[in-house]
Amino acid sequence: MDGRINNPDTLMIRNADLLAKGAIDIHAIMEVPKGLKQPGFDRLPEIEEFAKSERERRLLAMIRTFRRFGTPSILPPGTPKEQVKILREAMAKMFNDPEFQKDYKKFVGEEPTPLMLEEMERAVKELPRDPEIVDLFKKLNAAGPLPAR
Prior knowledge:
The chain is mainly α. The chain contains 7 helices and no strands.
């Protein structure tokens, strides 16, 4: 059976026994962010090595960016700048707090890897906007068979 996995950390936690037995054979990995080598998966080729065109590379860039976001915090247009500043500072303080990191790992079972707000803004600005890539992204993330290459 072929399949796709969204998160190597989750795969390792939920299926450690299957991985140890060799019952799962992984062929490639998507580094999120690009360049991040996951322990235990660093021998695998990065999925972008299989891209055959600039279109496919742009699609992978979009997927990688959305994977980095996780669950973003979004404020409505017109939110006063002072309130935005307070929220940014509070989130940065929380993400950098060693107690938060310890509790996160305890409850979730993974190391926290927050995407700081400045990085998220930069990533959003760099997202591909080409309608063809956006449409293909939607198809890849929908239920059902993968679209033809």
